[in-house]
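Appendix B. Worked example

We walk through a single record from start to finish. Start with the input: the chain for UDP-galactopyranose mutase, Candidatus Galacturonatibacter soehngenii, length 367.
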Amino acid sequence: MKYDYLVVGAGLFGSIFAYEANKRGKKCLVIDKRNHVAGNIYTNKVEDIHVHEYGAHIFHTSNEKVWQYIGQFAKFNRYTNSPVAVYKDELYNLPFNMNTFHGLWGVTTPSQAKEMIQKQIKESGIIEPKNLEEQAISLVGKDIYEKLIKGYTEKQWGQSATELPSFIIKRLPVRFTYDNNYFNDFYQGIPIGGYTQIIEKMLEGITVELNTDYFSNKAKLNTLAEKIVFTGMIDEFYDYQFGTLEYRSLRFESETLEEDNFQGNAVVNYTEYEVPYTRIIEHKHFEFGMQPKTVITREYPKTWEKGDEPYYPVNNEKNNKVYEQYKQLATQEEKVIFGGRLAEYKYYDMHNVIEQALNCVERELNM
Ligand code: FAD
Ligand code: UDP
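Next comes the structure step. The output line below is what the pipeline stores for this chain.
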């Protein structure tokens, strides 16, 4: 055997594992089916702007260890995510905070806003929220639900908000202060120079083979290493034997514009159902860019079919049950380690993936 580990996937999880293994003298072969490293955090330079090719990626964490860890590979700027939401000809601040409440109802104090929300919750009659719709109304009332949540959510997930799990909406803060910061985390920023450099640094000195799909070369690849770290889709690994896990996919449409500032913000959400995209990203604003041109990307949600990129796991009860069956098999494997957003079928952000990867390193390499 030529390698200690075959790492399937050169995304954040696979690259951290390979970096830490290499540091400890283990030989790794990293493969990826794409023609570049970095997985979904890949950024690419266009018109001197770092374009987030797979959607906006804002780094945020409250975990000191994770922040220190990622800081070894890049300097982070002071970017704070403050998206705005467009609903018809109205514009509101996100996440839901005093600026949103003022824009919507003209209220100016937290107690007025709370009173308004309480009144709407009471009218809805919801006591114990059982799905995303009820959860959203219980948090912010019916007006905000109808203008800023329902349309966005239903196009993003391709199903009714009454069928979706409530944890999805709990990702967003609700605040009674005039604070437009989308995240509650202690640390936040964008790596100056983009994300790809982080992964390139991790993979320095490690053999990487791109355009290599594990499933097309499985028999041969399995003979090359003692163990496998797999970061692809767990259901595909087990040949879909318990059924296909559901994902949500996206189509990105990018454009270079001959103007320096298209929308004045990195992220603008379109919350109306009738607008077919969920958001427009203007990449230069992540790094306070002053380039003469600008690059924007519209994000169109899409039903996932085999062969599409599986961007979001759909963590409802049905899919989680199927996943548990795959996980049972995974825990019995002696030579395969599963990790990352696809192999663990979890709606992980980057900081979660780093935490999981470092835990995995601890278990596997620091014994
Ligand atoms: P991935 O990045 O998906 O890497 C897996 C790699 O494995 C891929 O490169 C894939 O090509 C490869 N692979 C899969 N199957 C095979 C195979 N059979 N053979 C070979 N290679 C294979 N997180 C944040 O913290 N902040 C954000 O703002 C944020 N925004 C996001 C926006 C979008 C649209 C999406 C989709 C995700 C966002 N995330 C965000 C989450 C973030 O992208 C993930 O947490 C992180 O990239 C997951 O890393 P990973 O290594 O688990 O998976
Ligand atoms: N959401 C919404 N309106 C918005 C933004 C988000 O209703 O303007 C809901 C939607 O259901 C979305 C979820 O909140 O899927 C989580 O949003 P987040 O921005 O965390 O999604 P991601 O960046 O992961 O796509």
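Two observations about the output. The pocket of uridine-5'-diphosphate (ligand 2) is lined by residues 85, 94, 148-149, 152-153, 156, 168-169, 171-172, 269, 271 (CB under 6 Å). Residues 132-157 form the longest helix (26 residues).
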